[in-house]
Amino acid sequence: xxxxxxxxxxxxxxxxxxxxxxxxxxxxxxxxxxxxxxxxxxxxxxxxxxxxxxxxxxxxxxxxxxxxxxxxxxxxxxxxxxxxxxxxxxxxxxxxxxxxxxxxxxxxxxxxxxxxxxxxxxxxxxxxxxxxxxxxxxxxxxxxxxxxxxxxxxxxxxxxxxxxxxxxxxxxxxxxxxxxxxxxxxxxxxxxxxxxxxxxxxxxxxxxxxxxxxxxxxxxxxxxxxxxxxxxxxxxxxxxxxxxxxxxxxxxxxxxxxxxxxxxxxxxxxxxxxxxxxxxxxxxxxxxxxxxxxxxxxxxxxxxxxxxxxxxxxxxxxxxxxxxxxxxxxxxxxx
Length: 335
Hints:
mainly beta
């Protein structure tokens, strides 16, 4: 294990910029909109179990009493999370030239890259139709290494941040986006958990798993039909002074999702969108600095099974798109 406090390197000069690999510090202005991320975020004792997840999965065992066989199940999880930002690479160079007539020039781009590790542990789960393949409580259900990027210059269409992620299921993501700052709290947008390509009336028998949890909230709290509701509820009574928003989307040009062949055949992940709301609170920590909270909402679209919404042939080609949504509210760990 490398000790970043004692590690010494000879930095290389890159066109008057020094590239440095180091342990990041909170509020380092060189990190730009990422400057509040360094360190560890977690579901601490005052915010336990604030992570919630919903995902539809191909499944062949329909429950009794359903008018026609369902071919999927809806899985919901409650979880605790650790999200740690441990390393920063400053002034990462991308080399380029401008070949203007009579005036060629270097147009090098420089980026800040912030390394992260995400670990998620299940507290509870349920599915409908019920199965015997749910992981036991206490299991690690997600591990993700990745990078957040801040483009210092050479910005295209205002896209100044990016997120790279790799997931052990066999998925790699590049999502690009924009950062912003706001006074007070930012409103949390509503998103629908219902699949696209299906008649979305909850009386539709094909949506029986969604109706089940809409009528019986998971743990009495989480409704996968409207999954972001608990983020807004978590902000009630919290004095939020400022919010930094990091919003990324794999559908921006040059972004995308790449999957291994089995995933492509069975439940292809095609879109990843995520928003981080980093909140500076009026409440102070033990060092008399503002407490920091992090909320996020992540939407992954999984494509499987032909559309069943009865639209005219050729109107809306492609399979059903199933929202896979994860949300959480965490605190910055004060070391």
